[in-house]
Amino acid sequence: MGDRLKGKVAVVTGAGGGIGRGESLALASEGAKIVVNDLGGTVAGTGSSQSAADKVVDEIRKMGGEAVANYDSVTTLAGGENIIKTAVDSFGKLDILVNNAGILRDKMVYNMTEEDWDLVMKVHLYGHFFTTKFACILFREQRSGRIINTSSLAGLGATFGQANYGAAKEGIVGLTRQVARDMGRYGVTCNAIRPNAGTRMTLSDELKAAWKKAGREAAIAMMEKMDPNDIAPLVVWLASDDAANVNGRTFYVQTGTVALFSEPVQEKALVKVGGWTIDELFDFMPSTLAAGLVNPAPPKQE
After folding, report:
1. For residue 68, what are the β-bridge partners?
2. Of 61, 126, 141, 301, whose CB is crowded by the most CB atoms within 10 A?
3. In this predicted structure, what is the pLDDT of residue 49?
4. What is the pLDDT of residue 208?
5. Annotated catalytic, 165?
6. What pLDDT, on the 0 to 100 scale, is given for residue 302?
7. What is the Cα 8 distance to its own chain's centre?
8. How many Cβ atoms from other residues are within 10 Å of residue 225's Cβ?
9. CA distances, 236 to each of 22, 166, 279 (Å)
10. What are the residues whose beta carbons fall under 8 Å from the beta carbon of 223, sequence distance 6 or more?
């Protein structure tokens, strides 16, 4: 057991398995007291069970740490409030929030239902907001706090059949930037990670079938080698005092790799006095802003 987070209290959502479990164990190994939140549902967001969260709590206690379970859903404002309240009721305060809870409802956008879209948004994007809102009430008062959000490569076009998931995950990046700027004045940091690891979500039967159909069996083999526990060390660092000046940034992390993403900047611009006409843009765009652009998903022959 280390002491880099001694005396700190952390909430980890979706902590009953995979990446969230690894984050909880790692934070506890450095002295943090943990609220292990997990609804205990399926990958698709159905059902519930207390066993997943309870198992992780037992693991932390066996290693000499302190932890309590919370089974609330992140999809409601009341659930988000109660998750944060559990930390205060159990340990007297909150210092660290790790938003990790997630589900998948993968379909091509033309087959996606309203329910598929809404539930993924609720768990990921709304779920991040609901816990962050109540954590920030405390963080503002105590003038300190760490928030680590979970985005994905999906919103960068690295996957397929995940329009809902990718949109939610990129929304989380925007939320991260804004919260970082709103809360930075109070000594709070908010950063995001884009993890890559083999979990029940990334190695589900449905995803394996999709990869095989696309002729990308090698991607499955690679994912199986990505240990979800290897995500946690970066989260521990971001939660520590050492990362006090890191705010509003997004990191990529997988087994053996940690990378910092650049922030969006304008590449080039067309400027004139007054508005551009349709004819002018048809004349200038091909040789200026659109010059060299390549379609990342060109049409295929039937």
Report:
1. 35
2. 126
3. 87
4. 65
5. yes
6. 74
7. 21
8. 11
9. 11, 25, 54
10. 196, 197, 198, 202, 203
- What pLDDT is recorded for position 214? 66
Q: Comparing C-alpha atoms, which of 126, 77, 258, 97 is closest to residue 189? A: 97
User: What's the pLDDT score for residue 159?
Assistant: 81
Residues 166, 188: Cα–Cα separation, whole Å: 27
What single DSSP character describes residue 172? Answer: H
**Rounded to whole angstroms, how far apart are CA atoms 74 and 48?**
13
Neighbour order of strands in the sheet with 9-12? 67-70, 33-37, 9-12, 96-98, 145-150, 188-195, 250-254, 257-260
- Between strands 188-195 and 33-37, the pairing is unpaired
End-to-end CA distance of the chain: 59
Contact (CB, 8 A) for 146 and 98: no
Closest CA to 14 of 4, 6, 22: 22
Q: How many CB atoms lie within 10 A of CB 137?
A: 12
In the chain (302 residues long), the average pLDDT of successive 10-residue segments reads 95 97 98 97 82 97 98 98 98 98 92 97 98 98 98 88 94 98 98 87 67 68 80 98 98 97 95 97 97 92 78
Q: How many CB atoms lie within 10 A of CB 136?
A: 20
Left (φ > 0), alpha (ψ -120 to 50) or beta: where does 120 sit?
alpha
Helix axes 163-183, 114-121, angle to 10 degrees: 30
Radius of gyration over every alpha carbon of the chain, rounded to an integer in angstroms: 21
**Which domains does the chain show, CATH number per domain?**
9-260 (3.40.50.720)
User: Exactly one of 71, 110, 126, 165 is catalytic; which is it?
Assistant: 165
Question: Amino acid identity, residue 237?
Answer: W
Task: Read off the tokens for 257.
Answer: 């790799």
pLDDT value at residue 106: 87
Helix and strand element counts for the chain (H, E):
10, 8
Determine the Cα angle at 26 with ends 41 and 83, to 5°: 45
Token code pair at residue 281: 């843009």
